[in-house]
Design goal:
The complex is a heterodimer of chains A (228) and B (194). With 228 residues, chain A is mainly beta. Chain A has a single domain (2-22, 39-218), classed as Protocatechuate 3,4-Dioxygenase, subunit A (Sandwich). Chain A has helices at 2-6, 34-37, 183-186, and strands spanning 30-31, 43-44, 70-78, 89-94, 119-123, 129-135, 140-142, 148-150, 153-159, 166-172, 199-200, 211-214, 217-218. Chain A is globular and about 55 Å long. The mean pLDDT of chain A is 93. In chain B, strand 8 (135-141), helix 3 and strand 9 form a beta-alpha-beta unit. The longest helix of chain B is centred in the N-terminal third of the chain and has 4 residues, at 19-22. Chain B starts with 18 loop residues before the first helix and ends with a strand. The chains are: A mainly beta (228), B mainly beta (194). Strand 2 of chain A pairs parallel with strand 4 (82-83) of chain B, so a sheet runs across the interface.
């Protein structure tokens, strides 16, 4: 039972995702004693966030709204005991509606959107909540295997208040038919994959404006918060 | 009775396209950056050190699409508690390996002090395409006598300890330390399970 709950992480080496073969440690990791790993990360202040940083439909807008399906993505960041974590830095980046990343080395033959960058950031509020507005990202092809396509996803980087609270992950959308073909998604044990899939929230949609998804994030360990 | 735990959110790779979101200014994208490679600013020149290094894959090839973060104490061994843009000592840095001519990471900082009996060191978190997890490690500084008694370093098998020590370079212009990271092979860096 306990194993079922705690073993949610992918392995380092997952050969179906080919880039892991030369980029994963081969020797056992060094177990760090409790008193040496309890390192506090800084708490971010409001000065790090700009006015439109959390609205990807506006933060790169030049003359039009970006093309695509407008979405709201919101959720809570918590420790493993359900305690909400505030002032956590949540950063996201994603492809545009056509499945094109703005990154200079990206060569997928799909159009860039001059009004969309695809990056945002914010700090969680007192309830541990974050909310982004964005455009639903498209699927994009990658060279891992023949005709490989990534499911629609938004990349998340989360920095909490201690070293164990450092998470980089990807949020997926419910019911994506590409799940069964994607080794990055499948690197996570079967019983835990749903933890990376956002929930559609009809009650959070905004009429005539945006669909809504909930994506909660649980960081490792118990928060030794300096707020307590 | 122990409170029941929630399952953690699983980790996924940072992928190859993080730069315009996480290190936008460094890579020249039209977005701001919260964290950059200047960990300490405006310290007296004699106190400034530069930390550089390459990251190598299992074939010994330099990795040019990794993102590395450093987190360190100040000269007195204290960690920054509140991070604001205008701090002179931020204690936290971030850099991608895709812009330097030699595909290194480069940080400007100061030598950290001893932290609770531990030799001066800088904590490292590392992300890259092909890594499904955050990778944790740390490095110490060559020639510091405190390394001999550092509890973490002593817990590493002796022949692997040098993988956690940054080496002073022969750069005469500035104080510079080099910390190369090897994902695999004979010199595989010791990574941590936190």
């Amino acid at each position: 039972m306990d194993d079922m709950i705690t073993n949610v992480q992918p392995p380092y080496l997952y050969p179906e995702y080919k880039s892991t073969v030369l980029r994963s440690p081969t020797k056992p990791l060094l177990i760090i004693k409790e008193n040496l790993k309890n390192i506090q990360l800084p708490v971010f202040g409001e000065s790090v966030i700009g006015k439109y940083d959390s609205d990807l439909t506006k933060n790169a807008r030049k003359d039009h709204d970006p093309i695509g399906e407008r979405i709201k993505v919101s959720g809570k960041v918590m420790d493993e005991y359900g305690k909400p974590l505030r002032n956590v830095l949540v950063e996201i980046w994603q492809a545009n509606a056509a499945g094109r990343y703005i990154h200079k080395e990206e060569i997928h033959d799909a159009p860039l959107d001059p009004n969309f960058l695809g990056a945002g950031r914010m700090l969680t509020d007192n309830d541990g909540r974050y909310t982004f507005y964005s455009i639903k990202p498209g699927a994009y092809p990658w060279g891992n295997h023949y005709n490989a396509w990534r499911p629609n996803h938004i990349h998340f980087s989360v920095m909490g208040h201690q070293l164990t609270h450092r998470l980089v992950t990807q949020m997926y959308f419910p019911g994506d038919p590409l799940f069964e073909f994607d080794p990055i998604y499948q690197s996570v044990p079967l019983h835990a994959r749903h933890l990376m899939v956002a929930k559609f929230r009809m009650d959070w949609t905004e009429p005539e404006f945006a669909l809504a998804y909930e994506f909660n994030i649980v960081l490792k360990g118990k928060c030794q918060s300096i707020f307590e | 009775m122990e409170q029941s735990k929630l399952p953690q959110t699983p980790s996924q790779t940072i992928g190859p396209y993080f730069a315009y979101g996480l290190t936008a200014v460094q890579y020249g994208y039209g977005f701001s950056s919260v964290i950059d490679n200047i960990i300490a600013n405006e310290a007296p020149e004699k106190d400034i050190i530069y930390v550089t290094g390459n990251i190598y894959d299992g074939n010994g090839k330099v990795i040019h699409d990794a993102m590395i973060e450093l987190w360190q104490a100040d000269a007195k061994g204290a960690y920054v508690k509140n991070y604001e843009q205008e701090l002179l000592f931020k204690g936290l840095g971030r850099y991608g390996t895709g812009t330097d001519g030699q595909q290194r990471f480069v940080f400007k900082t100061i030598m950290p002090g001893m932290v609770q009996g531990q030799a001066p060191h800088i904590n490292v978190t590392l992300f890259m395409r092909g890594s499904l997890h955050v990778l944790y490690t740390r490095f110490y500084f060559e020639g510091d006598p405190a390394n001999e008694n550092d509890p973490l370093l002593l817990s590493v098998e002796p022949q692997r300890r040098t993988t956690l020590v940054a080496v002073k370079t022969n750069n005469t212009e500035q104080q510079e330390y080099c910390f190369n990271i090897y994902m695999q092979g004979e010199n595989e860096t010791v990574f941590f399970d936190l």
